[in-house]
Structures are given as C-alpha cells and as structure tokens.
Design a protein that fits this description.
single chain, about 750 residues, alpha+beta, eight-stranded antiparallel β-sheet, 21 helices, about 15% strand, elongated, transport, membrane
C-alpha cells in the first residue's frame, strides 16, 4: 500500500497547524486606507550641487524620518521606492497641510551677517520678517552646524514661544556675534539674519550686553519672532532634522479618515461572510458531501492565506481586502475542476475512489495552466500598479497559491478519507449532474453557427468602441493628476448647492458630485488651502462637514500611472499569448487572445457608456478579468487538445464542440461561485468596490461566453493555417508485476 495518502495527511495537518499559530499570534498590519492617516509620496530632484540618485534619496529619507519622529507621529513608515521616490505614511495625521509643509520642506537653514539696509529696486535685497529690506553677507553657519533645537516658553520672559538652538562649533557662532556686536546700537549691521529656505524668519539685533569681539559664548542662541506653540515646534523640527540634501516634490498624497477605514473593514467582512455562505450553500447543493468537504478546505484556505500575508508583513489595504474576498470565489475553481473530472471518470469505471484519484490527476494540467495565467496578472499588478492596488496584486497571488494547497492537498486528504465508505449518491460524484445530463441528451452543435457567433461578438465590440469614441473614458485623478476630496455631510446635499459652495470658495472649474451622505470635489489645480476653503464654504451652507478621503496625484505621476496601466494591459495580453502558444499551439493562443480582447473592450466600453471612473481599482479589475478569462479558455483548450488527440480522424470542429460541452458544467459552477462573492461586494462594498465588482461581473459573464462563442470559432478558423498534427494521447504504462515477497532478509 502506498504511503502517499499518509504523508499528504501529515503535510495538511502541518500546514493548518502552522497557519493557525501565525493567525492567532500575528496582528494584521493595516494600511492607511483602513486605519486612517496620511500617505505622502515625495520625488527627489537634482540640485545645482547634488544629483538626486539613490544615495541622496537615502540621506533625504533619514532627514524625513527624524522630522516624523520629532512630530510625535505614532508608528510612522518611511521607505524608498525606486531610486527617487520616498513613501511616508503617517497614521492618525489627518491634516495634510501640516504634514506636507513640515515633513517635506527643503529647510535650507543658514545664519548670515547683515551688511546693512537695502533700498527698493536692489535685486540683492532680502525682506526681513517685518517687511524691511536687508543686504546679507555669505552664510557663516548652515543647518549642518546645528546640533539641537527645541521650542521653549517661560512665563517670566513674557508670553509666547521661541526656539532654542545649540551649535556644534561654538567658535563660528561666537565670531559671528562678536563682529556684529561692534556695530552701533541702531545699526542694521548689529543684527543676525536667520534664513530658512531663502526666507528671513528672524533677524534679531544683539543685546547691548554682548561685548564687541567676544560675542556670545556657549554655542547656543534663541530664535524669537512671536511664534505660536505649533509654529515654534514645527520650526524646531525643521532645524533639528537638518537640511535635505536635495529638493523634494510632493507627487502623491492620500488622506483617509478613521471612520471610512472602519466602515471599509466592516463592509469587507460582511462581503466575505455573505459570499462564503452563498458559495458554501451552492457547492454543497451541487456536490453534496464532496462539496461539504471542499467548504471545510475553503475555510482552511482562508486561514492559510491570512497567515501567509501576516507572516510576510504585508499591509492590508482596501483593494487587498477585495482581493482576499474575491479569491474565495476563485479558490473553489480547482475543486470544481477535480469534481467534474471525477464525475466523468465515474461514468467510465465502477468505483468512486479510482474515479476521484483520476479526477485529481487529470485536472492537474488545467489547474496549473489556469493558475499560472492568474499569477501573471497578479505579478503585473504588483510591479506596475501604484498605492493600495499593489496590495490587491499581492493578495491575489497569495490567494492563488493557497487555493492550490487547499484543493490539491486538503480537499484530497478529506475526500480520500471519506469517499469509498459512502454511496455514490451521497458523495455527489455518482451522477453527472443536471447540466451535463441535459447537454449529453441534447448534444447541441454550437460550432455550426461559428461565423454567426463571431459576427455577434464583433457587433458588441463595435458598440463598445463607439462608447469609447463618443463618450471617452472618465479617467480618475490617479491617471490625470489633480486632487480629489470627499466630504461627509450630516444630511443630503443637492448638487447645485454643493457646486455653488465650491464656486464661492474660488474653485469654479471643479467637478462636483453630491450624494445622500457626502460631496466629492475633483480639480486639476486644487491646493491644500483651497480644500480648507471648500470645507468652510460647505459648512456655511449645509452644516457639519468632515473630510472623509483625499487624494492628490501630481501631473507627472498621473501620466506615469496612465502609461503604466496601458503597459500592464499590453504586457498582460502579450504574456498570455506567449504562454498559451508555448503551452498549446499558436492558433489556440491567438484565438484565446482574440476572445480576451473582446472581453476587455466590452467592459471598457460599458464603463465609457455608464461614465464610471477609470482608476487603479479599475486596472486591478481589468487585469483580474484578463487572468480569469484566460483561465477559462485554458480549461477549454486543454480539453480540446485531449479530445482531438483521442478522436483521431474526426474534424477539429467536433473536438472543439465536444470540449465546450464537456467543460460547460465546470464553467457554470465556477462562474456562479465567483458571482456570489461579487454580488456580496456590490451589496456591502463602498462606491469604489462596487465599481470593481461591476467590472468583474461583466468580465466574468463576457469571459464565460467568449470562451465558447469567440475562442472556439476563432480556433476553428485559425486551424486552417496551423498545419501541425494533433498531439498523440499519452500511452498508459502497464503495471509491472511485483516480484518477491517484499520481506527483508
């Protein structure tokens, strides 16, 4: 007796035990879109003296980290992305104005001697803090010469705050103040100018007690200037953090309120529970006990996926949660493939256990091919997407790998332990199923009308292209650049009232949308101070208003993301074609990609006609559709190859028709399993997840239909130009007789 079942059971128990341990001991790492806070993405720029390479960006990262720590932000995250970008995550910081101005300010600090007062028209003149003009000498001390800085207050010195500074080199400060102290009391040259980013923030005259030539000993000074506590603290943070080695540009900013994050987690949890219950009821109804065991494996899949993500330290984002929920529906696909093959094998044999074993063996090829195509889409999302959408790619990839463990290891261990001890009817594998029975009895010849199906598909694609041309795509801020702000309101706001309030705030060209519980404002040029004015204008018209979400994408980054989106779709199609051509034959790959293009065009055209936004979440949906659509076509062509080789002498069209009819039960059951999850996302998710679910529902429906009515007829047409003969069926190896008793002597 083979020991394989025993070792599979040991491996399954080990995987489940480790996953449970990690799940119970590791806390999830939530992204800012789930826990609230601000994310800033800076891009370093070349300065006249320093090139913005990876080393300069790392030095700038160290400065930003000191500033974030000095601001008192709990658990900030700062990482370098690529060579020139720095991602800063500040949990709990909901005022992006303060965060951007303090964290990303260049902060070139210098102490200059004052050469005298300047006259109007002097190009070298610099205005002081009171509006007067000064002529400054060369900097004597820069920010690198400062060792510490802190905000101070003392009731005995009067109200207000100042900044206390300690210098690394006492001699330079003493020499600078000693030279200034030799000037007369009212002479401007007795002042010391403190310059931050070419702006004089303070130019105090020296006290009469400072002796000429000796200066101020001790290497310390105070910057005064009628500061508030916040101003003094921010200035101390900038000085203590030091000067940035290179200038920074803010290219992306996202702010999410904590209430929106909590609502997103709650909605995703409801969608996961509802989708899992619907999927479980469906799969148990169709496959009975085998289906029930697969539901147990599906629960284990959820634990395994979560444990892997937690162990990796992955950040859970809102699109990532959507991917986690969606992967539940996709995880059932491998089980459906195995059970349908086992049903077919049972009709040809007399035992459930041999039929189940052959089901696992024969379904492996289609399972592997279909999951590789989904992994290609997930990899492209991770490498080419931006922001939280990367989390969707990671979650999708982990979900695919975990689904393989769930279906091919855990489901196999559970079913092999039970199947054979119960009757065929209770097992769920003893009957071919209602769909297969109906197809076998009717045997419809779908491919006889192949040209008609291709013409219908062409008509749908033409309608979609007409929408793209006539309406265009409604690109979101992520692809066009600009700022998007969502405000939550206590009561519904009419669109005209919201638009009037935004116009009165000085932003007449903004795109304003109003709903039952909030207002969204989008504009290409919308500054942080403009957002504050809009919030005040809305409060004056509709009452209490709170900022729910804010996104800013710089124009250069928007163009880059738009380009990356097109590259991602193009590379996805090319890689799928290359994989299918290698795995099958070029005519199969071309037919699958043709059907895939129809799927993508139809979904994009539908969004154009509906005016739905095109953003990173839509890109995630499109790449998921690419993976799912090719997944379905791989299963069909895998069966085409098998039937064509087994039925030598029959027309190729007959093999295609037979493959479509044989795989249709799997296609219907898998599609329904995914649709249950997506319907739950549509019911419980927010606007972005609802659009994501709509795109996927349309993609799954068109992908399922195109597998039969576009890919099949196209493969028949292209087969005329593919002269290679069908592959021969693999010859079964005869069992070798066992010799000897097996005893060890």
């Amino acid at each position: 007796m083979s020991g394989a079942p025993f070792w599979r059971a040991v491996a399954a128990c080990a995987v489940i035990a480790i996953s449970l341990f990690v799940t119970l001991t590791t806390a999830p790492r939530l992204g800012l879109d789930l826990r609230g806070g601000t994310q800033l993405v800076f891009e370093t720029k070349d300065s006249p003296t320093v090139k913005a390479d990876a080393a300069a960006t790392d030095r700038a990262l160290d400065v930003l980290r000191q500033r974030a720590d000095a601001l008192g932000v709990v658990d900030p995250t700062l990482v370098r992305s690529g060579e020139r970008r720095i991602i800063v995550e500040l949990p709990g910081v909901l005022d992006p104005r303060q965060a951007a101005e303090v964290i990303g300010r260049t902060a070139q600090l210098a102490f200059h001697p004052v050469l005298g007062a300047a006259e109007d028209g002097d190009r070298t003149a610099v205005p002081d803090e009171n509006g007067g003009l000064l002529k400054l000498g060369a900097a004597v001390i820069t920010g690198e010469g400062v060792s510490d800085a802190a905000e101070r207050s003392d009731p005995q010195r009067g109200p207000g705050w100042w900044v206390s500074i300690d210098f690394r080199e006492e001699e330079a400060w003493q020499r600078l103040t000693g030279d200034a102290a030799c000037r007369p009391q009212d002479d401007p040259r007795r002042r010391i100018a403190i310059v931050l980013d070419t702006e004089v923030i303070s130019s105090p005259p020296l006290d009469p007690s400072v002796p000429c030539g000796s200066g101020i000993p001790g290497g310390s000074a105070d910057i005064t200037g009628s500061f508030s506590h916040e101003q003094a603290r921010d200035l101390a943070v900038l000085i203590k953090g030091g000067a940035l080695p290179v200038p920074l540009d803010l290219v992306e900013q996202r702010t999410v309120g904590p209430t929106l994050g909590a609502a997103a987690i709650d909605a995703s949890a409801k969608a996961a529970v509802a989708g899992l219950i619907l999927t479980a009821v469906f799969i148990v109804t169709v496959y009975r006990l085998a289906g029930l065991l697969s539901v147990v494996a599906l629960l284990c899949y959820g634990v395994i996926s979560y444990a892997v993500l937690a162990a990796m330290g992955a950040t859970f984002t809102l699109p990532g949660l959507a991917g986690f929920v969606l992967a539940i529906g996709m995880a059932i696909d491998a089980n459906v493939l195995v059970f349908e093959r086992a049903r077919e094998e049972y009709q040809r044999s007399s035992g459930l256990r041999p039929a189940l074993d052959r089901g696992f063996k024969n379904a492996w090829s289609a399972i592997a091919d279909s999951n590789i195509t989904t992994l290609i889409a997930a990899g492209l999302l991770f490498w080419l997407a931006s922001g939280p959408v990367k989390g969707f790619g990671v979650t999708l990839a982990v979900g695919v790998l975990a689904s393989l463990v769930s279906a091919l290891l855990i489901t196999r261990v559970l079913t092999q332990a039970v199947i054979g001890r119960i009757g065929p009817r209770l097992s769920g594998l003893g009957s071919p199923g209602a769909v297969r029975t109906w197809l076998t009895r009717r045997n419809p010849q779908l491919m006889r009308a192949g040209k008609v199906w291709l013409a219908v598909a062409g008509g749908l694609a033409a309608v979609a292209v007409a929408g793209l041309v006539a309406r265009g795509l409604n690109f979101g801020v992520e692809f066009t650049g600009g700022r998007l702000v969502e405000f939550a309101t206590a009561r519904p706001v009419p669109a005209d009232v919201a638009g009037d309030a935004v116009a009165r705030a000085g932003i007449p060209g903004a795109v304003v949308q109003a709903g039952d519980d909030g207002v969204s404002v989008r504009a290409a040029r919308l500054g942080l101070h403009d957002v504050a004015r809009i919030e005040q204008a809305l409060e004056s018209r509709v009452g209490e208003v709170s900022k729910r979400r804010e996104e800013f994408i710089g124009p250069s980054l928007g163009a880059e993301l738009r380009r990356n989106a097109l590259v991602a779709l193009g590379v996805a199609v090319a890689m799928q074609l290359a994989y299918l051509a290698v795995r099958f034959r070029w005519s199969f790959g071309a037919a699958a990609v043709l059907a895939l293009l129809v799927d993508v065009i139809v979904v994009a055209g539908m969004f154009a006609w509906l005016g739905k936004p095109i953003d990173g979440v839509f890109l995630a949906a499109m790449l998921t559709i690419v993976g799912y659509s090719v997944n379905d076509k791989v299963v069909v062509f895998d069966r085409v190859r098998e039937l064509w080789a087994a039925r030598a002498g029959e027309p190729f069209a007959a093999a295609v028709n037979g493959a479509i009819l044989q795989t249709l039960p799997r296609t219907v059951n898998t599609g329904l399993g995914a649709l249950f999850i997506l319907l739950a996302l549509m019911a419980f998710g927010g606007d972005s997840l609802r659009d994501f679910a709509i795109a996927l529902v349309a993609g799954i429906v068109t992908g399922t239909l195109s597998s039969a009515f576009v890919a099949g007829p196209a493969a028949i047409v292209l087969a005329r130009y593919d002269r290679r003969p069908p592959a021969r069926p693999a010859a079964s190896r005869a069992a070798r007789p066992r010799r000897g008793s097996g005893a060890v002597v």
